[in-house]
Amino acid sequence: MKRQWIIFIIGMLLVLFLPVYAVWQQFVMDRQPTAVEGLLDLSKLDLRNHGAISLNGEWEFYRSQLLTPKDFDRTITVKEDERPRLSGMARLPGAWNDYIAEDGQRMAEGYGTFRLIVQVKPGQALTYGLQTNNIRSASRVFMGGYEIGASGNPGRTADDGVQNNVPFLGFATLSGGRIEIIVQIANYLYTTGGVFTPILFGEQHAIMQSKELYLFADWMTIAGFFTAALYFLGFQQIRKKEPASLYLGLFCLAAIIYVLLHGEKLIDGFWPGLSYEWILKSQLMISALIYYFLLKFVSASVRGGVHPIVMRSYAFLGGASIAVAIIFPSILFSKIEPLLVAFSASCIAYIIGIMLRDLRRRRNSGEYLLTILGIISILMVIITNLLPLIGMPDHGAELATVLMVDDDPVNLQVLRNLLALEGYRLMTASNGQEALEKIQSGQSIDLVIADWMMPGMSGLDLCRSVRRQFSLSALPILLLTARSLPEDVRIGLSAGANDFLRKPVDAEELRARVRTLLELRRSVRNAISAEMAFLQAQIKPHFLYNALNTMIALLPIDPEKTAELLHELSRYLRGSFDFRNRDQLTVLRQEMALVTSYLNLEKARFEDRLQVDYDIQADMNRLVPPLTIQPIVENAVRHGIMRKEEGGRVRILVQELEERLEITVEDNGTGMTPERMEAVREGRAGNGVGLKNINARLLTLFGTELMIDSDPERGTV
């Protein structure tokens, strides 16, 4: 008996090895780059010698828009309101149910476009490929300006397109540099929509190899089930009075169909015309048959194993599931998916429990042990295939970013291993200067963990440099040190550290301190965000009165012009009073729309006294801090142009310089003295419109201040 249990344990370890290894690879060993704000930088990788890369992270998302590369081509002249409208950043893979609706309600049906820029080595002309695996429920992919593949046809309504979800590959030969990837998606068949497994990118051979591995896994599974089916059905022909082998053989045949309907969906090769609706229906029906045959096998092989009431209940529920799948559309029965998964899990647990209990009763059970191992292996395959039905975890929640700084790569790896399972986005730097450059690059970093002793810029020097830009609550710093004297603590706190941790670090203490500092930053950030939203939504009463008085005076003379001004006022108020507008960044198009509405209202009031020049030389989808340009323009109008009797001109210049965006607001009104410029920037002048708030946000986000150049004779820039 002891020997049999040893065989059983070894078999279980072999069965569990693959899923455990997959989890380890996914959550611990995965060190691939992650997309940030729609950009994935792979320029340091030699893709010719690198495997397929998961395009995980933040993608640009365009709700209710099916866009193509032409829509993002700035050389094509179109009306501004016909340009793509960025809805925000979406983290892939993940369900889109939380953000697909305009009103924020959870729903699955809809359509949209995801966009990502992949930065590769310039001049590296290669044939690049993409591999999709599970996109619900129709998709079309563009790469580098070319359409490279589709599954179904995404449409604006269920009747406009064709729903399908079959994995596919696509390739394009490109010269490197910036590669634009656009994915159109529509879903009208399932209760969860979006991208549920990573989209893979890489050189042609890497993508082909990845695809072959997926196909190999499916075909090997089918071969295993087919071999087992032949064995059990052949054995049943010899011993016809024992139905257990018959049910086990039927289970294996049903499992073959199950594998054909999932994963790479090999059924599409055997039956190309089968609609995705019927693939979903068949998945539910074959699942019901699989568990029915398993229960019948256990009932036949284990005396008194399955209670008759359980058997009859499942026969009824299984039949009902098949009837529901045939009669109702998939969008309806997929809504009870959590119940189906829970029922499947309970059925699996019930079957395994019966077989293990019966195993303890038997003494001579070597063959029976092998049968149990086979059944458990099959059940593990089923569980593995059930997980994609539920979908990947929703990554809509923002991940905290932790920057770890140490000159010793071993220490960095230790920190990474200790924090890997906490769900943070981990970044590393090998010295203080590199860490400072990452902090000042504008990347969103929530916590810095730095070693005290490092060559060049030490941890203390890094603290002092960071505190010139960030407060203690804006960017916490945890110092790791072997020092513990009170004087050392005083020096570290004076330099700007929030907390200390003595080396060698204790794993639980490190995690606890990291969680505490991140929670502190999150709480302070939420409070500041609420205050910022309130400040952003403030409207000067006299501006509103003047705008309304202008429209009242204009109404009898020009009703159409009055209607246009009412529309502009509506747009202006909607943008200004949006208390949900707490995002750190918004698209330039949205910010300029607010500026245009404001200036149109002021031009109606001041007529020829106010002249405006727009010079936009940048992509309107570039990201900028919200409500930063309009207050500066308002200052130029109120405190510059309108203080001159003859009025003046405001010029707004937006241009891309290398990798940064430069926004210039220039007026030829009355300028300011140096003392007054400083007072306005710091909010001490009493009549500056939010410039202190803007200056603080620019300093926090980009490490640079608002630049003001003014002369009383020539105006302000």
UniProtKB/TrEMBL annotation:
Entry-linked Pfam families: HATPase_c, His_kinase, Response_reg
Domain annotation Response regulatory: ranges: 401-518
Annotated signal sequence range: 1-22
Modified residues (4-aspartylphosphate): 451
Histidine kinase domain mapped to chain residues: 519-717
Keywords assigned: Membrane, Phosphoprotein, Signal, Transmembrane, Transmembrane helix
Keyword Phosphoprotein: yes
Record-level Gene Ontology MF annotations: phosphorelay sensor kinase activity
Transmembrane segments: 213-233, 245-263, 283-302, 314-333, 339-356, 368-390
Cellular component terms (Gene Ontology): membrane
Name of the protein: Predicted protein
